[in-house]
């Protein structure tokens, strides 16, 4: 989005801005609303550019994985840096708020899928070209995998979930967001049972930093929990509440899937 456009929208939505403290950069700030109808995807922190959705993921990362801090910036301090170095974290996003602070760890990896680059190629230090359906990382490498609004765009999403399961250590977490209906089954937009896509509904595209727009194959539904359970995950969903607003988390939800012990897996 152009700076001039964002500024215009920020002024238009001035009454929706909120004061709080960012749980990523740690700054006391005013969260900037540019679209009151989709605050989950904006309410930007002007310091680290994080959105409400990203701060919700940060909330789960802090609560489930990294103890003793209230914002991710603290992890880069000498007091906590050793804890970060002990964690293998894979984030399927680059050049964003998390990377500003987690990249100081020796075991923090990022990726982006770039069609004309060989999968597995290290684009720059610890930034790889990866396809979630066929990850090139070794099995049980990571303590945490982070994905944000990606799986609705993956053709074979079950294969991708299995790949995330494979690269996670036992007890590790997949913290992720996807658009989801919690009162009905998944909405299948495209039939992917054959080699060619067959559109069942008018195509829906979402914005993408690399390709401009990207096709949404589905909107997940309540059956996502059964799908993940069969793979071997124990999954919970965290809905934002009134107290979360102090960290700029509004009208949001985020999933947390824990990789179970092999003997605890639910057989399909």
Task: Output the keywords.
Rossmann fold, 8-stranded mixed sheet, alpha/beta, 268 residues
Can you offer a commentary on this structure?
This protein starts with a helix and ends in a 9-residue tail after the last strand. Helix 4 (97-102) links the parallel strand 3 (89-91) and strand 4. The longest helix is centred in the N-terminal third of the chain and has 13 residues, at 52-64. The protein is of the alpha/beta class and 268 residues long. The protein has an eight-stranded mixed beta sheet with strand order 5-6-4-3-7-8-16-15. The chain has helices at residues 3-12, 52-64, 78-85, 97-102, 157-167, 224-231; strands at 18-21, 28-31, 89-91, 108-112, 122-124, 127-129, 142-148, 168-177, 187-188, 190-191, 198-199, 205-208, 212-215, 218-219, 233-239, 253-259. It has a single domain, classed as 3-Layer(aba) Sandwich (Rossmann fold), CATH 3.40.50.
